[in-house]
Amino acid sequence: MIPAFPVYLFDLDGTLLDSAPDICGTVQQVLSATDERPQVSFEFLKGYIGRHLIDLFGDLYPHYSTERIDRMIADYRSIYLSRGHTRTAVYPGVMEALSALPGRKATATTKGTPTTRAVLEKFGLLHYFDHVQGTDGFPCKPAPDVLLRSIEALGAKPEDCIFVGDSEADMEAGRRAGVRICSVSYGYGKAEALAKWNPDYQISDLRELLAN
Questions:
Q1: The whole model's pTM is what?
Q2: pLDDT in tens, 11-55
Q3: Is 7 in contact with 103 (CB distance < 8 Å)?
Q4: Is 11 a catalytic residue?
């Protein structure tokens, strides 16, 4: 049984939204524009969701300069927005859970704050959140910074919070931030990687947060 918390922090991609088709599709477009055009699978790319694009492009092109990687990231962001999130969907149970959960709610995602706010608004989720926090020029998960920014913005304490996410980076960031962590089984993370962080709670539907 999961108790009620004063503050709920949420990852976005793979936790609230099934956005892999748009994210991975955009990455494939960026890769296809390079000279080498590496053949990578959808499953491979899904494993990088929630991490910074520097990690993905750096792993695929370790010989590229920082400037070239930065251009690829800029291309990704432009293409991603132009797709209009047409292949992204809200996971079942998310709206019901967000509307019924007590306490305050905030995001803690690797996306930038403006993009996060726009995506939440598009899918009718923005009004459920007291604070929207993305990763804006500071270390991304698994560093705890984005969680700590949300906690500070809400005037809360780590012990008041639970962080819900789908990736190993989420679990590590939550542990480092000193909050309770809850893994979701329906996202993009692998079960064995999530289990390594011994989450306080594990759910297969966001509505399970209401079962208290």
A1: 0.94
A2: 999 999 999 999 999 999 999 998 888 889 999 999 999 888 999
A3: yes
A4: yes
**Reduced to 3 states, what is the DSSP secondary structure of residue 131?**
strand
Sign of CA dihedral 11, 16, 22, 25: positive
| The two structure tokens encoding residue 38 | 């590496």
Q: Do residues 61 and 69 lie in contact, with contact meaning Cβ atoms separated by under 8 Å?
A: yes
Tokens of 3: 């108790």
Question: What's the helix, strand, coil split of the chain in %, to 5?
Answer: 45, 15, 40
Which regions of the chain does DSSP assign to beta strands (E)? 7-10, 17-18, 89-90, 104-107, 161-165, 180-184, 201-203
112 near 138, Cβ under 8 Å? no
Is-cis flag, bond preceding 3, omega within 30? Answer: no
The DSSP string of 66-123 is: HHHHHHHHHHHHHHHHHTTTTT-EEPTTHHHHHHH--SEEEE--SS-HHHHHHHHHHT
Q: What is the dihedral of CA 111, 4, 100, 7, to 10 degrees?
A: -30
Q: Which two tokens stand for residue 4?
A: 């009620």
pLDDT at 36: 84
Tokens of 145: 């910074």
State how far the Cα of 125 lies from the Cα of 50, in Å rounded to an integer.
19
Cα–Cα distance, 188 to 48 (Å, whole number)? 9
What CA–CA distance (Å, rounded) separates 196 from 186?
17
Q: Is 62 helix (H, G, I), strand (E, B) or coil?
A: coil
Residue in 11, 22, 166, 170 annotated catalytic = 11
